[in-house]
Amino acid sequence: MGGKKWRWGVILDAGSSGTRLHIYRWKDPEKALKGASKHDLASLPKLMTEKIWTKKIRPGISTFGEKVDQVGPDHLQSLIDHALEIIPKDKIRDTPIFLMATAGVRLLPAVQQSALTREVCYYLRSNTQFSLPDCDMHIQVIKGETEGLYGWIASNYLLGGFDNPDKHQHGKGHHTYGFLDMGGASAQIAFAPNATEAEKHADDLKLLRLRTLDGSPVEYKVFTTTWLGFGVNQARESYVESLEDLYPSSSTELPDPCLPKGLRTTLDGVPVKTPKPKNTTLIGTGHFDECLKKTYPLLGKDKPCSDNPCLINGQHVPAIDFDVNHFIGVSEYWHTTHGVFGGKDDKAYDFTTYQKRVKDYCSQDWTSISKGLNPKKEHAAKNAQEACFKASWLINVLHDGIGVPRIGMEDLPQVNVSKGTQGALEHAKEKGFLEPFQAVDKIDGIEVSWTLGKMVLYAAGQVPPKSGDDGYPVGFGSNVVSGKAVPDDFQFAGSSWRPLGGDNGKHHNGTVGGDDDDWDLDAEDILDRARTRGGQMGFWVFLGLVGLVMWWFRKRERRMRVYSRVRGLTRRRRSHTGKYVPGGNRSPLTKLTTKLFGGRSSSGGGYERVMEEGELDRFELGDVASSSGSGEYSDEDSSSDHSRGSKAGSQFGRSSGLATPTATSGGGLGGGYGFETVTTVGGGMSALNRSGLVVRTDSRERLNLPLSGGVGGVTGRRSRAGSPTRMKSPLGGGISPLDDR
Known about the structure:
Helix content is 31%, strand content 14%. The longest helix has 30 residues, at 523-552. The radius of gyration is 46 Å and the shape is globular. This is Golgi apyrase. It comes from Podospora pseudocomata. InterPro entries: GDA1_CD39_NTPase.
């Protein structure tokens, strides 16, 4: 199900009553371009989803306003777990995740809104690997206008208003559909006015920019607004408050014509059988006509209008031309017209038919209604007791508020269409989309949700712009007509058109740095090929280097030359320490080179000096005068201040520059070894050691004479071939040389 060609997106709709997970999938633009038809090239990317890819949990995140630290583990984690079961593991890092809160959170104080969004972003970043480069863009409380615009995109996307405008000519050159949405806390409207109204109210419109698969830009000018507090739940609260105002405060029972006859509930809508004396309850009367009259004032039609024309609550909306503006209603528009009142097979909304169904239902007593409920259906009783109020509210908003004609009672002018679009219109008419209003839940099996519109915008932003295009980013903002390329308030799609795995540049605005010459190659293919070629090339280069080293070291003299140089480096570094500990002071490099090149090593308590090539003359002892002739000596002061030579006036002859090792006291052969250097004094062959004792410095190996404690002459001359070993007496007194054995 994964495949290299697919891209994925996750969006969480954080509404007032709950949070719903939506997962979408679409082809990578580069893959979709291969073999695309002319129709596909002129269309937006094709998104798909499945029923199992959605999941809703209750309540909404607005209930975590005062306990934000719990919103992640107690609320979001179950949705994340569900998403991880759907999306392939190798796609998680490239999958964007969005959480967009709507009216429920918009009602919270600004401080709580900010705390919630920060906590959600932190939790998602800490506990998931989804792509979340920008918290402000991916986790936000969206405005009602934005929610409406996303819904408008989703509706027209599914109906084909974008891809086949010639097949959706509603008249007057108009081919898009209007969008109506109603949730628990707010209601939205979005539509593209006709040409006359668009010109008249240009400053009130949003400029929307999309991009088709061939990279062509498409623009739309859309009006969108929201009515906060006009969702069904908020409207119900306002309605109950109006009932309380109609009766004295001492009243404990309030007649409610919007409740089925005989149903008794608290002010919060909780059914009660035996009311408590001091608690106010609502008693259903089942008078639907009266219910319509009592809910009408909630529209606020008497509010002053500062910018004509206005619809609900004195809010400005350009005049709607229902000849060409055909609206799609989702959420509560669908549930209230197709829920307990039936109508699931209706192809179009008919006001007369719908109102008759509502009256018949609401005139029943609650006992009869409750007997027909399915006990296994979740929220069946709650939906039934609220159905009459919701129906009255929808009718008032739809017809008296927005002004949708009452089909079945009011005639509409006939749509003037050409013969070329007659077939398409007949197909649309079967779906009911040529009427002024149609409530829908799904189109072609896909749920109509504003979340789809957001993801369509994101996917369109991944399409590379056509050659020669100005690169104007995908997104929306104010409808400016000046020379500015991007409005100051432009909201970017949040995606870039670089291939998957490439440098996405600035995620927040859809622009990228660098060139895009590699667009013809799929990014994953490029990475796979690079890894394959890189791995193979690295392997062969490694083999070649190993072979070259082995060929060069095939001769022993080369190996020994390198060994000697490395050995010399380690000796120079070690000579500054002043002491030599068998085995312990040997560096890892020395041990390694000894094994690799076969050089001799010290063992036990022995010491070995390996002379570097080219240093023979440097270390040859000079001639010194003695009572018995010439001899050679190892003359070096043991002090660190006299590593080579000696102070003036205290040394005669030449210093060899070599240190003569002697056994330290107190340890014999088992003790430590140190460099004990001596200096010739007055031409003699003895000097003081560190303890002030006289020691001999003649080497038996050099002089070929037995060490006898006296001073013997030396005949002949030879280079130093090895270092003699001496031992201090364990008694700490006189010195007895160690016989050679």
